[in-house]
Amino acid sequence: MAAAGGSVFASGFPPGIPRHSYPAPRARRLALISSTQRLFAVSTAEQLPSAPTSVPGPTPTTEGELGQNRRHWKDREPNGSAAASPFMEDEGSELEGKKRLEDFFDLAKDLIRSAGGLPRWFSPLECASRINNSPLLLYLPGIDGTGAGLASQHKKLGKIFDVWCLHIPVMDRTPFTDLVKLIEKTVKSESHNSPNRPIYLVGESLGACLALAVAARNPDLDLVLILSNPATSFNASQAQSLVPLLEIMPDQVQLTHPYLLSLMRGDPLNTLRATSEKALPPQEMVAELSKDLLNMSAFISVLADILPKGTFLWKLQMLKSASAYTNSRLHAVKAQTLLLISERDQLLPSQAEASRLYRAVPGCEIRRYEENGHFLFLQEDGNGIDLVTTIKGATFYRRGKSQDYISDYLPPTHSEFIKLYESSKWFNDMTAPVMLSTLEDGTIVRGLAGIPYEGPVLLVGYHMLLGLEIIPLMTQFLIERNIHLRGIAHPMLFPKYKEHGSTLSPFFYDAFHIMGAVPVSGANLFKLFSRKSHVLLYPGGAREALHRKGEEYKLFWPEQAEFVRMAAKFGAKIVPFGTVGEDDIGQVVLDYEDLMKIPYYRDQIRRNTEGNVKLRTTATGEVANQDMHLPGVMPKIPGRFYYLFGKPIDTEGRKQELKDRKKSHELYLEVKSEVERCIAYLQDKREGDPYRSIFSRLVYQTVNGSSSDIPTFEL
Description:
Number of strands: 21
Protein name: Acyltransferase-like protein At3g26840, chloroplastic isoform X3
InterPro entries: AB_hydrolase_fold, DAGAT, Hydrolase_4
Family: Belongs to the diacylglycerol acyltransferase family.
Keywords: Acyltransferase, Transferase
Radius of gyration: 28 Å
CATH architecture of the domain at 414-582 and 637-704: 3-Layer(aba) Sandwich
GO molecular function: diacylglycerol O-acyltransferase activity
CATH topology of the domain at 414-582 and 637-704: Glycerol-3-phosphate (1)-acyltransferase
């Protein structure tokens, strides 16, 4: 697709059909779309489609810094400093407040105004320049058939995908199997044109059946399926009862359209709650609610044009055949699949269907949404999902045949980080972290001024109980220094999510993926250093984070110097650091030894451990004992977290010297000793912190304001 153009095409672009490109800022989108002669290049020829022209370019970023005020930085605009933002360009920040239904109906109106004809693809005008080698995303609509279901997300999707949407004209009566063949023809053509890139099929309801059918017929193609509430369960749904009702209902009576619109809107109480949370004056709140009611009446009129009685009947009958056709071929689906399931789906029994599909489709993963109805992409009451964020969190974004956690990684947007920050703010407030760093002259200062801004930098430290120190650490580096840490993580954070038996929600893991966690491996560390990244490494790994009773602040590092020579190869600066505070928030009462004596937990630990990639298989001693378990922890009245980052150790120019095993081991022991020194320093100094207790901190903030920085011990 051109940098800012739009097109609609049937199954091909004959040479005589021109393509058009126009500048398309969001404010002008509807004006441009309303002129269908300019927007669409249309063909009904039975040829394979040509792809929109790709626009190469780097991952978009914005300029600016986050601000120094750690309490209110998120409310500030970038101030134009020279430091580049670590965030991906935030094209989708409007998704929370934007009226998704309004976007959908605005685009749908313009699409159905165009001539009828055959089903065709259109490339949204908002999908402007993309990052290099962006994969193709084909959006397959649900029962409405307009292809406008992702209208509010086009701009954000268009940054990382080449987006094509299928439009099925209102009066079209193409059978399900012919739609499958049309999509299949496109998929085969584009797979031939770009054999090393995956093709994404995003389908909802009926569209999910189309995606599964295409995948079943083409098991050897590299397809990624993102399916929202698949209609494979139609035969078990209450929607079947609509067919006889529609057959006897007069054309003038429109009972089904208000019902469908109510499903699109989601829970009206959530809408009312979202409006009240804006804290508007009573008059403005009434005006906004009145406007919503007026919009609803207008939407019903458009919905009647999208799904007149004959079309609605045809679509319901198609759902029946689509469900039967797809279910008979599920065994042949080999594609990587992500199910997005609404637990309040009133149209289909999606909750139960998800479990069935999970068992039937190999490599399938599920994300469940407790507060959402059937129309997952249209819900606008604050529970609507951001598809890009979902794909990133599930690590489903890739541009090649296999996942590359470095080159395929997309940094969080500013709004994504805000959500993660807000979700963990209670923990930051509870632990009131004190971060200290060491300048080049050895002076210890409060804050992160001693951390080198230019990479590569390797931060090597102690892993507190359950790794709880990571939460304040990651956020503070972004807030104070605009530095995005890439954590080297245990493979347990990356395996296929188990629908039954997992102790944690998949969204817990998704947060780590969005923030840039990388599976531990020499290859990944090499790639991060080559990109001059700031890398976070815990040599003690799971053994340190899941330590036993009485092992607080004890390092469990391997004997071999694992990271020194790699750091020296790139001239990386090594920053040793220590953290303390775990013993002020909880006490281990059931450790590994205790749990292994209980048959139920012993079996669970063995299952969890066997299901994970084995690390340090040649290591001996305690560091090799990395059985996966959750210790029993008794909470305490919260104390405070403390961090000390030691003086950076520069390996620049020491590559040859550190090739010598003895020399590299000496540096390794120096780093380990410095981490232990940092821990000891913090343990000693915190005794003199008058605000170590949460009660003294609450008193201080009551007097000085909740946003005030809380003092600590004398440096």
